[in-house]
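User: Sorry, folds how?
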Amino acid sequence: MSAKLTKSLRVNCFGRPGICSCYKLTWTGISESVYLPLSRRLISSLFDLEQIRTKSGAFVSIVGLVIMATLFFHELTYYLSTYTVHQMEVDLKRGETLPININMTFPSLPCDVLSVDAIDMSGKHEVDLDTNIWKLRLSNDGHIIGTEYLSDLVEKERAAHAHDDHKDHHEESDHKIELHSFDKEAENMIKKVKQALANGEGCRVYGVLDVQRVAGNFHISVHGLNIFIAQMIFEGSSHVNVSHIIHDLSFGPKYPGIHNPLDGTLRILRGASGAFKYYIKIVPTEYKYISKEVLPTNQFSVTEYFSPINEFDRKWPAVYFLYDFSPITVTIREERRSFLHFITRLCAVLGGTFALTGMLDRWMYRFIEAVTKPNTSSILR
């Protein structure tokens, strides 16, 4: 009497070989009393083996589907996103204006003493500028306590005089007020500013300054004051604290991915004062969106220099921004990947995942079969 176990069929579950199997028991000359207990144990073992294989195959299939779905959405997002292409060419633009966006805070200077000058490459003040600048009075803890609108930041009465960065800007007003002879308005001005300094007032200057598209500079300082009034207020140029925070400085509208290197710049003076000079190289830029819309703007690079001022120096502290233009313009164009490129990558990742899960399924089936085969043989004995 002998019993023989033969494999009659292998079923593919979830498209994988070796997950479910069906077995047939053939016997000859064996009594029913011997066969029934043996068949019960054998069938129970076969069912347990079938459940283990089905669970492992289902697990591999589910993991494969999750991976394929994740890769599909990743490829779809990659296809729908845009990338940029940079091109350079000679700048041919002429006769345009340059918008300068300013947003700065001077925590140690009241708004009454701050002024802004804009000068072109000829060394003269620009006049009739279309300015839109605001000054915000700040308390000692940074809260806004008042505003002042500057309809024209350029002092037109000095427009005809040459401007030299290395000379004292206050010498032009020597003829207005003689030493120790101040009128009532000047005395009130001195008293008001000294009170603001004692209270720790600061000033925030922000807005847009339109200048001609030529090399030049603009600076924020106390140069708008008469030299004798400034001397009475600060008791020397070395006591003018031009500590500042640059929240935003740009030369045109912003486009996606632009980086303005001076944004967030913090310069706090702890000792002697001095002049901050930022040398800026402006690069004309055109940004072309995927919708064919063109945005003209500017990028820039910057280097910084600080010149300390001693007690006997005749120069007064200021924050200078000296800019020049690059002869090269940069065109940034948004583009999208082709649909054929998307299909090719999609087939590659999905096909690769399918093949990998198939191999993993076969390896798991063979491992389980190798582990459970000795147990089946012991049952037949």
